[in-house]
Amino acid sequence: MAMTCLHLKPPICTGTRSTRVPINVAAARACLSVDTNAVDPLKAVVAVGSQEVMEAEQKVMVGTYKRPPLVVSSGKGCKLYDPEGREYLDLYSGIAVNSLGHGDPDWIPVVTEQAHTLTHVSNAFYSIPQVELAKRLVACSFADRVFFSNSGTEANEAAIKFARNFQRYSFPDKKEPATEFISFTNSFHGRTMGAVALTSKEHYRSPFEPVMPGVTFLEYGNIDAAGKLIQSGKIAAVFVEPIQGEGGVHSATKEFLQSLRGACDDSGSLLVFDEVQCGLGRTGYLWAHEAYGVVPDIMTLAKPLAGGLPIGAALVTEKVAASIKHGEHGSTFAGGPLICAAALAVLDKISKPEFLLSVSNKGQYFKELLTRKLGANPHVKEVRGFGLIVGVELDVSASTLVDACRNSGLLIITAGKGNVLRLVPPLIISKPELEYAADVLLECLPVLDASD
Ligand SMILES: Cc1ncc(COP(=O)(O)O)c(C=O)c1O
């Protein structure tokens, strides 16, 4: 695909940022074959301009997010648009959330109809979409039961509480119940006080200490160290991501996960797979752990499950569920009818074997493409990944490249120590869109020379 066709001249509007390369929406559309029958994203152009939004944000928002100068006002498929109509190819997916892209034609009517029917009802009552979703998750996984939350961090909080409950309930004669946890280098499990305690990067934890005590961080993949500590009898649960996203796109080995399973079985510790980022089709398997042939006692899910609406879930075996009594955990919003109906629409699509196969194929194609196009550049150390979670490790910080790509109409994110590009496109992305992304990356690579 010729780069001249893909972007980005002449400007279609008056740019508010001098560094931004404006995008020729019509040309990009022609090249990327946007569905012209779909809702026109440019109709979403609103009176408020990007500059106005960014200035207002500075005044009224708590400064938790360091944002690049980009206001996103609409999306369709794998494209996002700013208020001025500039188009971006989205390989960011709201950090691996928008697996069906934006405005999926099967998801929208389900959500619209459920919004008309019933949006929220307290967990004090039964609700149909919640039970349906739980049935579906149980049917397509190792799990016997489901607890719903509103986010990934809350799903992990639930897993922490369930693990402690399980230990007290299952080993009542033990003088001191196992209450401690193992987590691993480069792990990310969330930002609430339990989940952040399991998150390896110190800067997420240290400003808020004391966080939950009793967490030991071991080297990801270190079978001996994990086996020894699990044997101590103090470990309530081992938390591990089969593929680490935030930590730099690192995949576990089969031997590592198998050895954790064996050690947990021997000692009575629980094995928790955090599939908040890597689960639900991203690897080309419905659940990432299927690729390893190892099942957990608890799996936590979140990001893509409701197609962009907030959800989390802890899927557990019967033995774990048996230790949880009424009132021991709960949530006001979690598992509401709207969210669960949305999640059913997502699960329906993603769990189809042909959908999963297409993710595998596209992932393989994308990795080969990136290796071929970028591999010769001396800054590129490795292209790795699994399905459509792909990492490109650089020998310098990736942030200048991320900025350059954004200015050229491609949204990507960093991971790890900031030297890894994380490419997590919507799972519906097309091969021409992947080619476009690889071409933009190739064209932008020279900015790394300035980082030498
Ligand atoms: C593996 C993993 N676990 C947990 C979380 C936390 O999820 P949330 O941001 O929904 O709380 C994330 C978020 O990036 C994640 O990648």
Ligand set: pyridoxal-5'-phosphate
How would you classify the helix and strand content by structural class?
Answer: alpha/beta
Domains (count):
2
Rg (C-alpha, Å) = 22 Å
Span between N and C termini? 30 Å
> Portion of residues in helices?
25-40%
**Coarse shape:** globular
* CATH class annotation of the largest domain: Alpha Beta
Mean pLDDT: 91
Number of helices: 15
Percent of residues in β-strands: 15-25%
Uncertain segments are 1-39
Number of strands: 17
In order across it, which strands form the biggest sheet? 4-12-11-10-7-5-6
The CATH superfamily of the largest domain appears as Type I PLP-dependent aspartate aminotransferase-like (Major domain)
Q: Kindly identify the CATH topology of the largest domain.
A: Aspartate Aminotransferase, domain 2
CATH architecture designation of the largest domain: 3-Layer(aba) Sandwich
Taking the sheet with the most strands, its summary is: 7 strands, mixed
